[in-house]
Amino acid sequence: MNEIDHDALELATTWFTAARAMTVAAGHIDPSREATAGLYGRAILGLNEETCLAAKTPEQVGTRTLLDCLASIAEMPRSMSAKLVTGIVLIAYADASMHPLEVRWTSSMASAAGLTESSFQACCVNARVIALMMVDPHEESHR
Amino acid sequence: MSDASGNFDFLTKYDDRVARLARQAERYVHTDPDSCLFKLRLMVEVMARALVEMQLPHLVSGDLSTMLRGLQRSGLLQRKEADGMHAIRREGNAAVHGEVATTPVAMRRLRDAYRLGAWYCRMIRRGSKVNLPGFEPPSPPPGTDAQSQVRLRAEMLEAAIEARRTRARDALMLFADSENIDAEAARLRGELEALERVAVAAGEPVIDADLVALVMAMDVEQILEEPAWGRTAEEAKVEAEAQFNLVKMAFEEAESGYRIERAKIVDAMHVQHPPTGERDTSE
Description:
The complex is a heterodimer. By secondary structure, chain A is an all-alpha fold. Chain A has helices at 6-25, 31-43, 49-55, 66-75, 78-94, 100-113, 117-131, 137-140. Helices cover 70% and strands 0% of the residues of chain A. Chain B contains nine helices and no strands.
């Protein structure tokens, strides 16, 4: 196994924690949301397979609270935290619905990232654009 | 090992058509893996359609992929079963479109179909107790050397393909199979609810999610129509497309390598045991 970059692992762990929270906030775990989150992590956040797997071990994501996640987002460069916010808005677009806890989580993340209203709107626009091109990873990972 | 019958007999009293397709697939697993995969794909389609007719009639005219995704979203089809059904769908499609298949591939999917058959029985008759004795791989016909070098190579290749695909899938999914997903979801949900209580206690309004979603959608529509934002959106699209394509190409590259290797093995098998008979794609 290759050595995993510490910063990439931190990013992946924060991403999967944030994305899990967004998925759970909808009330049930929709596979389309799960898949969207994974593909976004690989393609847009640039996480490699090994890092994604390592982030999902009990020692990483299993011990991370949502407050830890928000703290990590607050410490990231703005461009990266904006990508994470874009990603979780994208997860909401995946099943075209929005639940109160999803709104709260999005708002908490945007605050932690220090986004202005216009930069948050940019995240929503980017999420919308990406939502239109997302593919089913069940097909993409196996074909 | 048993002869090529018996594994799917339990299905007959639940759905005769599904049982018949499964038995046909079982019969072809050694002699014609392509036909075996074709039959299994049909079996999965019949099962999916039956469930969709019962639970999601608006999807009944959809293709198999659409039906499976609908069943997944509705929570009827859990992750393990979905993986098995998608695997059969993919291999069946590949066989129909002329990609070469080997007996080890067909045997793996036959084993999946056995497990899915039991699940299907429980789904169409709630409360059914389906006690399976365990899958018995059908015996190869006389004269087949199941331990030949080519056959072992094929087995190893399929094992490598499965391992790679599982790894790619595990990297993509939010939760690992080994996790207690319900417990983890409950933990996160508890934390989200605590965040909500803190926000409300701090004087933030209780959220009307439908209204927020509507406002967000309207905002986005307006922003997308704004020339300056439109340019940004277009740039984002081009950039995102390029990034998604990179991931897609990496998946494709790995699959293409396997397909080439598989084709070589099938050629070597044909040298040892020339194929006989026409492919049967009837029911």
